[in-house]
């Protein structure tokens, strides 16, 4: 026979498992094409090179502060194995953009959901990410975005309008390149 304490433990495990498997908490939906993101502040990247790339001069910034025609916002987890698999693909994309006519028109930014500056510095030291990473150590922005699994890719207009989203790894970089090029016309 199950004790009262055992029953409570079992119910807690079932409830926790259900919450994990049910997706975004509180019924928040993930952004989709056509949505406009709420304005939020992010902590600026530590590296001067990253701040210069984004055109950020202050310790905090908002996405509209980034001067570009298109912003690729990549929500990552600093311990996410899928993000680690996608990172080289996006480093390739970053380098391709910087060597093309899209340089300056398209900016890339990773948002480290739950990541702090020390964890981000480790990723940068390991050359895991070539492009800037902003911390979201308390998951505030991650929650605003509907708590997506990582990696979660958004292409945004300067005003924060969602033009494209993708959950998971982007396998076909050439097809994604075409989407980016079409959105910058």
Layout of secondary structure:
Layout: H1 4-21, E1 41-43, H2 48-54, E2 60-62, E3 70-76, H3 81-98, E4 106-113, H4 117-125, E5 133-136, H5 140-144, E6 152-156, E7 162-167, H6 173-183
Parallel strand pairs: 3-4, 4-5
Antiparallel strand pairs: 1-2, 3-6, 6-7
Domain unit count: 1
Main sheet summary: 5 strands, mixed
CATH superfamily: Glutaredoxin
CATH class: Alpha Beta
Strand order of the largest sheet: 5-4-3-6-7
Taken as a percent bin, the fraction of beta residues is 15-25%
Summarize the structure in words:
- With 185 residues, this protein is an alpha/beta fold.
- The protein has a single domain, classed as 3-Layer(aba) Sandwich (Glutaredoxin), CATH 3.40.30.
- The protein has helices at residues 4-21, 48-54, 81-98, 117-125, 140-144, 173-183, and strands at 41-43, 60-62, 70-76, 106-113, 133-136, 152-156, 162-167.
- The strands form two sheets. Strands 5-4-3-6-7 form a five-stranded mixed β-sheet. Strands 1-2 form a two-stranded antiparallel sheet.
- The longest helix is centred in the N-terminal third of the chain and has 18 residues, at 4-21.
- The radius of gyration is 18 Å and the shape is globular.
- The chain starts with a helix and ends with a helix.
- The model is unreliable at 3-27 (pLDDT under 50).
């Amino acid at each position: 026979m199950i004790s009262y304490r055992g029953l409570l433990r079992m119910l807690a495990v079932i409830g926790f498992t259900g919450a994990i498997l049910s997706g975004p908490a509180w019924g928040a939906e993930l952004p989709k094409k056509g949505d406009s993101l709420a304005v939020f502040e992010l902590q600026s990247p530590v590296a001067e090179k990253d701040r210069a790339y984004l055109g950020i001069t202050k310790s905090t910034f908002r996405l509209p502060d980034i001067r570009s025609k298109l912003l690729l916002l990549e929500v990552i987890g600093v311990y996410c194995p899928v993000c680690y698999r996608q990172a080289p693909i996006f480093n390739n994309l970053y380098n391709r953009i910087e060597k093309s006519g899209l340089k300056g028109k398209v900016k890339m930014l990773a948002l480290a959901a739950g990541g702090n500056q020390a964890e981000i510095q480790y990723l940068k030291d390991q050359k895991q990410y070539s492009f800037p990473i902003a911390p979201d150590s308390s998951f505030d922005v991650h929650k605003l975005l509907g708590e997506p699994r990582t990696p979660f890719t958004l292409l945004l207009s300067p005003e924060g309008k969602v033009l494209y989203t993708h959950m998971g790894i982007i396998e076909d970089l050439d097809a994604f390149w075409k989407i980016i090029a079409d959105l910058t016309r």
